[in-house]
Amino acid sequence: MKKGEQTRRHIISKSAELFNLQGYAGVSLTEITNATGIQKGGIYKHFVNKDEIAVEAFEYAADTVFKQFAAAVNARQSAMGKLISMFELYSNVVESPPFAGGCPLMNAAIEHDDGHPLLREKTRDRMRSFITFIKNILQEGITNGEFKSNIDQDGVASFLMAALEGGIMLSKLEADNRHIHYSKDYISAYLKTLET
Questions:
Q1: 131 — phi, psi (to 5°)?
Q2: Comparing C-alpha atoms, which of 68, 66, 52, 43 is closest to residue 19?
Q3: Are the C-beta atoms of residues 138 and 156 closer than 8 Å to each other?
Q4: Is the pLDDT of residue 91 over 90?
Q5: Is-contact 142 64, C-beta < 8 A?
Q6: Domains (ranges, CATH) in the chain?
Q7: Helix%, strand%, coil% for the chain, nearest 5
């Protein structure tokens, strides 16, 4: 990898943590220069403005977390186990989240639902992709005879996503992992009702 590309990636990864911890509005270019050790001129050599950094930083954070979800899911055999593994990935969200600051999708969704149009669009696209990821696991469970064939995949995927994000949010807010554990336990019980 060329030095310029290494520098660009360094800026993106450090900025991703800042944005996920403090939000887009809460991060200044000065904070980015402090975190990266690169002066403003060096930053502008690689990026047009803060918006461009923010979009690429969000994509980086979302990719990083999705790879961890994919690894957790691929380590399981059953569709039920795959779905539960997504909650287990965030089981210690307070002390050791998969990405600094918690879930990048949730953080961006909350901050940009009425704000930054481009980041809102990117966040919406990623959320839809993740819901499709969940639906694919549900379909796998139907195909292998684990889940009933008549389940509402859209509704179940949306519910699972809401339970996951809600558990993360409450655990982060109260600095107590019990909420994500409650979500996992109740989702486990719910998924059993979908079994054949």
A1: -65, -40
A2: 52
A3: yes
A4: yes
A5: no
A6: 58-193 (1.10.357.10)
A7: 75, 0, 25
CA distances from 20 to 17, 99, 109, 138, 152 (A): 5, 8, 11, 29, 33
User: Tokens 């999705």 sit at which residue?
Assistant: 66
- End-to-end CA distance of the chain: give it in Å, rounded: 50
Structure tokens at 66: 């999705």
Strand-pair partners of 195: 147
Beta bridge partners of 147: 195
Place of tokens 């600094």: 100
pLDDT at 190 over 90: yes
Q: Could you give the 3-state DSSP secondary structure of residue 147?
A: strand
pTM above 0.85, yes or no: yes
3-state secondary structure 83-128: HHHHHHHCCCCCCCCCCCCCCHHHHHHHHHCCCCHHHHHHHHHHHH
**What values do phi and psi take at 176, rounded to 5?**
-150, 115
Distant-in-sequence, close-in-space partners of 94: CB < 8 Å, separation ≥ 6: 171, 172, 175, 176, 177
7: number of CA atoms within 13 Å, CB side? 14
Enter the tokens of residue 106.
């949730």
Q: Tell me which residue of 80, 95, 94, 79 sits closest to 184, measured CA to CA.
A: 80
pLDDT of residue 116: 81
Q: Which two tokens stand for residue 150?
A: 């008549």
Q: 29, 71 in Cβ contact below 8 A?
A: no
| Residue tagged 């481009």 (tokens) | 118
